[in-house]
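Inputs:
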Amino acid sequence: MRELIKRKRDGFELSKEELAFIINGFVAGEIPDYQLAAFLMAVYFKGLNYEETANLTDVMMRSGALIDLSEVKGIKVDKHSTGGVGDKTTLVLGPLVAAAGVRVAKMSGRGLGFTGGTIDKLESIPGLNLKLTTQQFMDKVKKNGIVICGQSEHLVPADKKLYALRDVTSTVDNISLISSSIMSKKLACGADAIVIDIKVGSGAFMKTEQRATELAKMMIGIGTKMNKKVIAVLSSMQEPLGYAVGNALEVKEAIDTLKGQGPKDLTALCLELGSQMLVLGEVTANKKEAVSILEKLINSGAAFEKFKTLIQSQGGDIQYIEQPDLLPNTSFLQIYKSNKSGYLKEINARNIGLASMELGAGRQTKDSEIDYGAGILLQKKVGEYIQKGQQLAILYSSNERKFAKAKELLDSAFITNKTKVISKPLILKTISS
Ligand code: URA
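Outputs:
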């Protein structure tokens, strides 16, 4: 291992066998965290080329069980986001496209760095079981057309271990490490086609459109090599998605969106990604028709019903979905007001994510406990005019001492302009194989 770290540190290419030695040794507990951490940092600085990234993906995918979805009828379409702030799209999209007939068999992750994770959000619903066996996973997708599980010891254990180590060694935002992490999970879960939502901007791992495009091409390349169709949608993170940031707060906003009363940006992104999924799943031939199907499913209540089926079938208490005010709350809230006037030009999503983490919505260490009701409810969006003294956000935490640091982070999150601001488009571009 010492020799392999040195070779990568010095910029040499590693063979598939060498990458397998590293990953399998790490999963088996034979290679310690500190050597893997050094290896990850070497990869971070020297990179992996396309061949090495595809090989790493394959090795990671095979580090645990592989799910064979061939028994499930139809084209299985999966979706994954590279991670954002306020990004609760899976909670809306999963049931929405499942209601349209696409089979959704999804493995999701926990929060990473300042970004939230679908599994943490769903765990704010009492009773919900996200640790499923492969058989339960298969049975539920066959019966309900949708299932969501967390990463287990059985599926891609290499990513579960690497993800946690990357999180605490500042080695997340690397194109090869993100590509192999996402693609190994999607491929192990048996997806035929994959839609990747690549977040771009201050609140994302990819800060520029150019880097996001490189990441898209890498993932498309890996997918093509494995005979899978991949579409990458680049979407802006110049502000958090929607208004809610924090686990239970985001579940409530997702429920509103499934009922057709959600924020405009979140709804638009779900319709864009969802229509791509419907076309890939061959439910319809074109995106325009797909959007109209999805809108009807929201308006008729069918999408929300599918969400209830998903929660109920995995042991969640449906009362909390019918009356979301019952979801975890916090004992304290504080109002954050503007210290200046002007047009909102940016709401720095990274700072909002960090502030929400600080309030208790995310983990400071691998073993931190989450305060499910904690987080931030924004009151404004980019482009709006704000007056000094006006409410910009409501902060929630169960620990009163957490507000001061969160407010400090918010002080530099709201960037204003004297003149009117035209907000950038939410969907920047779509790249396909
Ligand atoms: N999401 C993942 O699953 N992996 C990453 O590395 C980043 C986002």
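Remarks. Residues 77-323 form a domain with the Pyrimidine Nucleoside Phosphorylase; Chain A, domain 2 fold (CATH 3.40.1030.10). DSSP finds 17 helices and 13 strands in the chain.
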